[in-house]
User: What shape does this take?
Amino acid sequence: MKWRIWLLSLGIMLTSVLIFGFASTQVYYNSAIDDSKEYLRVYMNYYNESYSPDTEGAKALSEKLNGARVTFMDSQGKVLGDSIAEVTENHLDRTEIHDAIFNGEGFAVRSSSTLGKNMIYYCKNFDGKFLVRIAVFTNSDWSIFAKTLPTFAGFTGIMLALCVIIAVVSSHFILSPVKKLAEQAKHGEVEPAYHELEPVAEILNERNRSIKRQMDEIRAEKELADRARTSKDEFISNVTHEMNTPLTSIHGYAELLNAGGLNAEQQSGAYKTILAQSERLTNLIACIINFSEIDNDSLPSYEVDFSALAKEMIYALKPEADKRGITINENIKDGVIVLSRHERLNELFGNLLRNAVKYNKQGGTVTVCLTERGFSVEDTGIGISEENIGKVFSRFFTVDKSHSGKNGGFGLGLAVAKKICVKSGWNITAESKLGEGSKFTVEF
Ligand code: ADP
Assistant: This one.
């Protein structure tokens, strides 16, 4: 690009010099001719009738006029005397003479056939009696051009140097904002110094933005993949941990039984523990399978009468609540229809309701509200500390680790509830105050 700018400047400069050269030569030549015409007229004033109309008279007048060529002719252009050459032929065909005969005076510029040099002629008709022609040498436009060539060569040299300087400076001024733009584009948003570069800047900025978007997407995908990997590792570690306790217990009691030496009561206790722990293991496996299945559940949704389902579940849990003197208050609107699956709603609502009873105090209350906008399960139980409230929806989270696994509580119930809500596009939240109670709300 730099070279193009330089060559272009050079081309413009050379063309300008040539045009200027020809034009100024022409102007100078025309002005010289005009000047010559003027002083030829002045010369003509020197003529008077005292000069005899022959060669002698012509020479005498020529001497007076610094050697200008003087020709005397009769009224028809026949030469009577010439100060320079012996000319006898009729000059009527010469422009200046023809014009002088018919118009009183005439000018012409040409190369003299007699002298072989470029001359300017002025001819005047004196009252139709005879003609006087005065001529002086003049330069042709080509000879003027040739004379000015050395000056032009010098001028061209200066222009060339100027042109190189201008080309270097202008290419710097043109290219440096572009270079700056490219440099800025490497680091982010581009701000052009000149508004002419705005379209380029816009393209660069759009490209940068699109690259940034793609990078963000890739980063987000990578983060997601990392999180999924960590979550999978955590899940496996939690499952292994949860399985370890019943397996150790089963293994220990089986060894004791195998070794023998236990009395009947001890043997019965060992069998009961093995049975209870294997049940717990089965429960855990069922819970894990269920938890994983929700993700892969592609069964279609259908309209479920949530009001009826909620009432049925409360009814089913009543005996257990009664045992601990817990009252269940129902505030259920009839005919609330939800687009879901029966078993999923069962799990979601069942987990929250069972927890409200399970983590309640003796003689406490559970209040269930249901409308078309959602439902809530509120209890006056043990509550959850501020520190733990944010973790209750995490897998395998239990506030009291020592009770983990009791009554099938592996810390998966709320994780399942959250998963179902997320899949259905619902929002689940938990509010609680330690020692006072908890409230779980689901917004459809
Ligand atoms: P779990 O099967 O152990 O009940 P969940 O996922 O249902 O597992 O609950 C996770 C933990 O959250 C429970 O172990 C319990 O500590 C706490 N929690 C859940 N519901 C309540 C509630 N209504 N009141 C107090 N604590 C609760």
About this structure: The chain has a mean pLDDT of 89.
